[in-house]
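Risk register update: the risk of archive-format incompatibility is retired. Evidence:
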Amino acid sequence: MKAIVNGTIIDGSGASAYRGDVVVDGDTIVDIVRGEGLGLAPQMETVDAAGCLVTPGFIDAHTHSDAYLVIEPDAPSKITQGITTEINGQCGGSVAPRYGEARLSSDWASILGPRLTWRSLAEYRDVLAEARPAVNTVQFIGHNTLRSSVVGYAGRAATDDEMREMKALLEKCMDEGGWGLTTGLIYQPGKNSTPEEVVELAKVAAAKGGLYATHMRSEGDRILEAIDEVLDLVRATGIRAEISHLKTSGRRNWGKIDAVLDKMQSAVDAGLLLGSDRYPYCAAGTDLDVVLPDWAQEGAAKAECERLADAATRGRMVAELDASDRDWSTVMIGGTWHADNKRFSGRFVSDLLQELSLSPGELVCRILEKDLCRTGGFFFGMSEENLAKIYSRPWIVPGSDASLRAPWGPLGADHPHPRAYATMPEFYRRVRALGFSREATVARMTGVPARRFGLNRRGVIEKGAFADIVVWREASFTANSTYIDPHRFTGGVELVMVNGSVPYRAGRFTGDRAGRFLEK
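Archived output:
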């Protein structure tokens, strides 16, 4: 048995904090005793949490760590900010199923190398269990991964036969532990799907008790119409739905925020939406190739590289990029792979254009070509004022939209968005600054997402709950990661417990990993 003693307990329910001790036996909280000077059994292992908050482990409601949990099971960037459960397989891209033409994202595939041995979700689970991750994972099934397994990357609607095959494959994945369906409708090949295709797949997930999370078809010019598409899907299927990383992208769309929030509030109040998640930064992070014209993105990275190698096609790409109205002062180069591109990470495209005397199209195509179209990008297209408005809604929970990272090994060679290391302290800081109490803010990081995703006995400190617990110092719970220097751990986290084991304590990764693949 273990006991965390002398701490200030915030239990994740929103109730007032209190002094007390938490007693853990195996993977479960077996007792909570309020007050001070308690008589604990002398043989009990104790953790002195004096001066610290003791809370449920934080839940990252929108992540992309599926593959990297196999590479770096200590989950350093996540565990050091108190995250004990990740909701993976988001934005339509999941680690399985992997059949037909399906390819994992280029960064996953290149780093996994020979460790990429699975095709089914069941096979992935076996590999994950052998890796023994430090955090729990909830695995959604990505529509893009599903579609590419059956339809491939063709820029067309699915046939009736392909729809039947996709539905059967999704049903199999749900039976193997999938939590539901996610979409990334701005990405290949999901952008080629019709709303009707997504509805039919959501019906399969709903019939299995699954949920739906969506990176909508638009987060900018047509965001209101995109929300309507989600609501129409919910009405047609009865599925419970979450809108991913809520934002209004592009300065010309910032003024839509009140209409967006009002529409979503009405849907939440009516039970049509569970809510939304959002990372606490005003720059999005995704692959740089999203700036290419739609026709140039078809077929994903492999086809893009082939187009870049053809002089005439490349010239058309350069010309269209040069003629676009994109503000290149809002685009920063993120992770790069080729040695010649490393110096560009953390630099704005507009600054590089002046320095190198290149046009936007020439620069972007050169970088993408050398990186085999795997370059990352940060897109500063959001408003600080709007982020505050978004966080003022209690149904917004934290989601990093990031894979786990480490300052060492294969994951340390990348240049990630700071949200990979610092979503939780930044969320806490921003929400508290809006006037929310400690208890209400912690609930949005723990109990609220646990209930939303149906994580039974998690997200709370109560007798009988799983022992996912974080001991942290509020005053020093700070973000140290930046866009320029991202590989820096969050401060203030003293101890992390997952299912009763302690994978991180006093700045040290212990190797005592007991994270689980969670099932409904």
